[in-house]
């Protein structure tokens, strides 16, 4: 019934799985019949603290008692505290708040243009930066782009992981290089260890801004709050969204050394006090409960356990922290239904790669449950 109504009343932008979910607790979610599923996707990396977390519930209730939005014509304690916290954890200087990943990247692109007066960008092949026109122009995949051309011009695409390609493509018209520290939608592609550091050096040498898109890698997922922090560099702009407010809509671009002027950019909902207080609670809880350490340890545990199953059908296991890709030799899409029948939610990216993005609170027992089902589903 709900599925049928969904098909009737909701636009056809997603291929949805054939279950309808009702509620959740921790790493589990429940359908209308009360069946329990282990959530290994967490809203596509959106819920680092899992579902119906007590601290998040409290933050939501407190906001409901005050106000949810009074616009950006005023400062609010919630937004200011969040901005200060994000500056502290990122080592950057100033925040712009929007409502999604694509908006965070739009802000970053406009900020780069406003400050360099240049209009060319370099992005990577297979990159995903979002689906509004600016971010879509930085996104590689043909099936997302072709129908909507002309896009914003002057994006040049280079091979991911190749620093020479960036150096050779930068011109005196280049405003910025935009990269993901680990490519998510491309199938969890981890670049060579020195890549980010070398890209930073090239951008410095050529006087070009570096935008790092941490919409998926950020918020503790890879074991540090932002992945660039584990490479001892800083971008000029970092963007994040997905896990920032534990599933509520929020995106942010955090910059260093550059700023907007009034009128350059804005967002009515951006940084509203309701979502800001939930985001602040999310960050504080990630630190207080050592969830980044947990992401590192459990991530390694998952990769080792899968490795030990020694399956011929597995081509590669990769990723960092709790952002893991298991590439099969064949198309993995039909595996989703088999996992659902074992009461486990996974997603598949780039046809062949099983992608795991569980809540950062996941424990060993839950992982063991996943591994034993994996062993049965992936022959
Ligand atoms: C998901 C994602 C985006 C887009 O985020 P939305 O909130 O869906 O607009 C941008 N960049 C990366 C790296 C992503 O994974």
Beta-strand percentage range: 15-25%
Oligomer: single chain
Sequence stretches where pLDDT stays below 50 over 5 or more residues: none
Outline type: globular
What is the terminal separation in angstroms?
A: 34 Å
Mind summarizing the main beta sheet? 7 strands, mixed
CATH fold description of the largest domain: Aspartate Aminotransferase, domain 2
Summarize the helix and strand pattern as letters: HEEEHHHEHEHHEHEHEEEHHEEHEEEH
CATH superfamily of the largest domain: Type I PLP-dependent aspartate aminotransferase-like (Major domain)
- CATH-scheme architecture of the largest domain: 3-Layer(aba) Sandwich
* Whole-number count of domains: 2
Helix content: 25-40%
Output the CATH class name of the largest domain. Alpha Beta
Bound molecules: pyridoxal-5'-phosphate
Q: Could you tell me the radius of gyration in angstroms?
A: 20 Å
How much is the average pLDDT? Answer: 96
Strand order of the largest sheet: 4-10-9-8-7-5-6
Number of helical segments with 4 or more residues: 13
């Amino acid at each position: 019934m709900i599925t049928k109504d969904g098909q009737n009343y909701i636009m056809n932008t997603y291929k949805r799985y054939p279950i309808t979910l009702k509620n959740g607790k921790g790493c589990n979610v429940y359908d209308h019949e009360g069946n329990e599923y282990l959530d290994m996707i967490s809203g596509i990396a959106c819920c680092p603290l899992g579902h119906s977390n007590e601290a998040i519930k409290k933050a939501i209730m407190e906001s409901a008692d005050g106000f949810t939005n009074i616009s950006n014509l005023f400062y609010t304690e919630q937004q200011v505290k969040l901005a200060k916290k994000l500056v502290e954890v990122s080592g950057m200087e100033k925040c712009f708040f929007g409502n999604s990943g694509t908006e965070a990247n739009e802000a970053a692109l406009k900020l780069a243009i406003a400050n360099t007066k240049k209009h060319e960008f370099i992005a990577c092949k297979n990159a995903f930066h979002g689906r509004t026109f600016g971010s879509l122009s930085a996104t590689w995949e043909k099936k997302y782009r072709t129908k909507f051309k002309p896009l914003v011009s002057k994006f040049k695409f280079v091979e991911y992981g190749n620093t020479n390609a960036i150096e050779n493509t930068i011109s005196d018209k280049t405003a910025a290089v935009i990269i993901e520290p680990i490519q998510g939608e491309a199938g969890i592609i981890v670049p060579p260890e020195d890549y980010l550091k070398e890209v930073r050096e090239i951008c410095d040498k050529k006087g070009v801004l570096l935008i790092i898109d941490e919409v998926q890698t950020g918020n503790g997922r890879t074991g540090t709050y932002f992945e660039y922090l584990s490479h001892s560099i800083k971008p000029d702009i970092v963007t994040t969204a997905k896990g920032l407010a534990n599933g509520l809509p929020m995106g942010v671009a955090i910059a260093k050394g550059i700023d907007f002027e009034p009128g350059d950019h804005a967002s009515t909902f951006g940084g509203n006090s309701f979502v800001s207080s939930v985001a602040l609670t999310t960050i504080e809880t990630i630190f207080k409960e050592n969830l980044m350490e947990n992401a590192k340890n459990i991530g390694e545990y998952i990769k080792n356990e899968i490795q030990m199953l020694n399956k011929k059908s597995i081509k590669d296991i990769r990723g960092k922290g709790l952002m893991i890709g298991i590439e099969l030799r064949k198309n993995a899409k039909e595996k989703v239904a088999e996992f659902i029948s074992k009461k486990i939610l996974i997603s598949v990216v780039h046809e062949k790669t099983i992608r795991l993005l569980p809540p950062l609170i996941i424990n060993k027992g839950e992982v063991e449950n996943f591994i034993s089902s994996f062993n049965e589903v992936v022959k």
